[in-house]
Amino acid sequence: MPDQLIYATGAGNQLRCVAAVTTNLVAEACRRHRTFPTSSVALGRTLTGGLLLGSGLKDLEKITVHFHCDGPIGNIIAQADPRGNVRGYVSNPEADTTAMNAHGKFDVRAVVGGGTLYVTRDAGFEIGLFKEPYRGSVPIVSGEIGEDLAYYLAKSEQINSAVGIGVLMTVDPSSDGGDHQPEFSLDRLRVSAVGGFMVQMLPGAEESLIAQIEHNIKRAPHTTEMIRAGLTPLQILETVVGKTGLTVLEEREPRFLCQCSRERALLIVSALGRDEVEDMLEKDKGAELTCHFCNESYRLTAADLNEILAEKD
Ligand code: ZN
């Protein structure tokens, strides 16, 4: 099933609703960054959260969700645009907990710890339109990602929101785990279902609506359960908001997409000083640049470096 993101209004324009199934793009991110299971869950939740928050942006805007954690995972970063493109990474992809928490889930809170959540929105920087970016921050109060994003929206943007995000990992039966691994190994876990929802109260929404939504969420299965059951984004929203009054405004296919390229790698090296470039040429006969966001490597040859040096003359 392809990934899907829908954007809707509910209760006669009193609610702004977004829901997404992001299994494929999260699996790609985890494959690229070789994340261990708990880090995979943390990254998957953050990428999905970034897309949910990014869905309301204007055309050239971009949102960066940055969990600066004092736990072993370090930083968790997701950057999304309103077209459904997202990229991201964690500083320590091997941060992991072997034990599940009391709910039988990977203990994301244990790898996140405390810290600060920063959310930055900027517009048009890529094409030279510079507008002062908007940046808000709150302490990490939960460490479970979804709750922290809801806390940020309430505290920093004064938007009352319900956010639910789930990442399900299952044992991959097709993998034999290799010769040197026990039959059950964390390495055999695969990202099998990821998704989430965000419901926001628009200004003027009736107070009773908040109570109704809270009631629905309490009665609804946990987000991970809805994802496991294969619910579509629309069905997830129907569970949370109720079937009546939902109007789907937009639907798109979100994807993991990075803006790096070989040309950008060349530009980065061109911006270095002559000494540094000469040093790379002498010591390594080239240069290798790895993009943080997608873990793609770009190898620049000695000829590339000589060309850069020639342009500096
Ligand atoms: Zn990249």
Question: What does this protein look like?
Answer:
The longest helix has 18 residues, at 37-54. The chain is globular, with a radius of gyration of 21 Å. Helix 1 (23-33) packs across helix 2 and helix 9 (274-284) packs antiparallel against helix 10 (302-312). Strand 3 (61-69) and strand 4 form a beta hairpin. It starts with a strand and ends with a helix. The chain contains ten helices and 13 strands. It has helices at 23-33, 37-54, 108-112, 146-156, 207-219, 223-228, 233-241, 262-270, 274-284, 302-312; strands at 4-10, 15-21, 61-69, 75-80, 85-90, 115-123, 134-139, 161-171, 189-201, 247-252, 255-256, 286-290, 297-301. The strands form three sheets. The chain has a six-stranded mixed β-sheet, covered by helices on one side. It has a five-stranded antiparallel β-sheet with strand order 8-9-2-1-10, sandwiched between helices. The chain has a two-stranded antiparallel ribbon with strand order 12-13. With 313 residues, the chain is α+β, with helices and mostly antiparallel strands. It folds into two domains: 4-256, Hsp33 domain; 262-312, HSP33 redox switch-like (CBS domain Like, Alpha-Beta Complex), CATH 3.90.1280. Zinc ion binds at residues 258, 260, 291, 293-294, 296.
